[in-house]
UniProtKB/TrEMBL annotation:
Its main location: nucleus. Gene3D superfamilies: WRKY domain. It holds the Pfam family WRKY. Transmembrane segments: none annotated. It is found in: Nucleus. The keyword DNA-binding applies. It comes from the Eukaryota. Keywords: DNA-binding, Nucleus, Transcription, Transcription regulation. Residues 28-43, 58-73 have a biased composition (Basic and acidic residues). This is WRKY domain-containing protein. SUPFAM superfamilies: WRKY DNA-binding domain. GO terms for molecular function: DNA-binding transcription factor activity; sequence-specific DNA binding. GO terms for cellular component: nucleus.
Length: 457
DNA sequence: CGGCTTTGACCGGCGC
DNA sequence: GCGCCGGTCAAAGCCG
């Protein structure tokens, strides 16, 4: 698939996301609109989506109809009465539809609430069974990845993603943003083990991701031996690398044992001497999944496009972390969280005030990135990545990424409680969703502007 | 021509 | 000590 097509998909997605707002707008207009207006609404009721352009066309069409009716009205007063009656009938119909929508919305809310409760319960139960080291995964995007629990291990908490529901219920009203939080407890959070076993166990949830084109699941781990932290990001991405807003230079490539797909090594070149490195490798079981592992701490301010999602990740992180009372939180200062950036003190201007969200200052420096511009010269190479279609000249679509910190020394009981609570809280907390939405929308807007610019609009 | 990718060589950690 | 393996280096080549 070409990058243009991908861009078109993104645009289409935006169009769909705006349907709800536009719908409401139309309903307001409906009070003094004509019958044609209702015609459009009926189309929407039938499940047919109207994009922004479609809406514009519709309104112009409406104007024409109004003119026609005006003409008719001047000529025939009886027809005018008929139109008035029609209008009344349509308004009544519209009210009925509104009420129906309300009822449906309530059903959705109830379903979601029930789902969240179940999710929390599952997390609670699992953590009581496995009070071990934790990993936290954050998924952003149009879908999420399923984590099949490995037979015999049972260490990963399998939680049906919020995305599943949002995909079913809210795909016509929401931004297409879904949040999925997973808590993972494993005997060894080191990435090397993760890469060897854990990563392979990650499976794509559904094919929505392929069309959604933007999805990440991240895990963050601290190697207890070296105190080196790593962030592993899984993203469905057709390109050779995921665009995370930073500039990278490839310095090596190796074929790792057990995975015929070569692992590429990149260094951050945004600033000289930046120690951050990343490894990029295709998932063995699903070539469309790109596993990116970040290591190190940026010694430079992040690109603007990279900060928004980073803030979301930081917000998520703060939700997932033990509170300040936990003395172990001080380890965050000594053991730099992977892919952190101390320059992200003020997460993002896109976001609402984060005071209430950044409870732990030690984690305000989490770095995450998403950008629509591929600054790096990470050109796809079909020779290197045979699965990457040669028709992709440039991965214009960018997989977002986010990172969540994990305490190297997570405190048992309190952590478990707060983690379980936070899992549910983070999904339902309006601040968090607002932060993520802001991040995603900034990403989408950016991408949208770029594509619009390219199309000469 | 500068910056990047490619790729074989090299190095260090780890298990046997 | 040896071999394996992951990670890094650096020269050569490519590209805009």
């Amino acid at each position: 698939m070409s990058s243009k097509k991908k861009r078109a998909q993104t645009i289409m997605h935006i169009d769909l996301s705006l349907d709800a707002a536009e719908d409401e707008e139309r309903e307001v207009e409906g009070a003094h609109a004509d019958g044609d207006q209702h015609h459009h609404q009926q189309e929407e009721e039938g499940g047919e989506k109207i994009s922004l352009n479609g809406g514009k066309e519709g309104s112009s069409h409406r104007e024409d109809s109004q003119k026609e009716e005006k003409d008719q009205g001047c000529e025939n007063p009886i027809a005018k009465d008929t139109i008035k009656d029609e209008l009344c009938a349509l308004q009544a119909e519209m009210d009925r539809v509104k009420e129906e929508n309300k009822r449906l919305q309530e059903v959705i809310d109830r379903t979601l609430n029930g789902y969240y409760e179940l999710q929390m319960r599952v997390a609670d139960i699992q953590q009581q069974e496995q009070p071990k080291e934790h990993r936290v995964s954050l998924s952003l995007g149009g879908g999420s990845f399923q984590e099949p629990t490995k037979a015999g291990e049972g260490e990963q908490i399998e939680e049906p993603s919020v995305a599943d529901q949002s995909g079913d219920l809210g795909d016509d009203k929401e931004l297409g943003l879904s949040l999925s939080l997973r808590t993972l407890a494993g005997p060894h959070a080191d990435t090397s083990e993760e890469k060897g076993k854990g990563l392979k166990s990650w499976q794509p949830l559904d094919d929505k991701l392929q069309t959604g084109g933007f999805s990440t699941v991240t895990t963050q781990s601290i190697n207890p031996a070296t105190r080196k932290t790593r962030v592993s990001v899984r993203a469905r991405c057709q390109g050779p690398t995921m665009n995370d807003g930073c500039q990278w230079r490839k310095y090596g490539q190796k074929v790792a044992k057990g995975n015929p797909c070569p692992r590429a090594y990149y260094r951050c070149t945004v600033a000289q001497g930046c120690p951050v490195r990343k490894q990029v490798q295709r998932c063995l079981e699903d070539m469309s999944i790109l596993i990116t592992t970040y290591e190190g701490t940026h010694n430079h301010p992040l690109p603007v496009g990279a900060t928004a999602l980073a803030s979301a990740a930081a917000t998520a992180a703060n939700f997932m972390l033990p509170n300040d009372a936990n003395p172990s939180s001080s380890t965050a200062d000594t053991a730099p969280l992977s892919y952190l950036n101390p320059y992200l003190a003020n997460p993002s201007s896109h976001l609402p005030p984060m005071n209430s969200l950044t409870r732990s200052t030690g984690y305000s420096s989490i770095f995450g990135a998403a950008s629509g511009n591929d600054h790096g010269r990470q050109q796809p190479s079909s020779a290197t990545y045979p699965w990457a279609a040669s028709s992709i000249p440039n991965p214009g679509f960018a997989g977002g990424s986010s990172w969540l910190p994990n305490k190297g020394t997570w405190n048992g009981e309190d952590a478990n409680k707060s983690l379980a609570g936070n899992t549910g809280a983070i999904a339902s907390d309006s601040k968090f969703t607002a932060a993520v939405q802001a991040a995603i929308s900034s990403f989408i807007n950016k991408d949208g502007r770029t594509s619009a610019h390219r199309r000469g609009e």
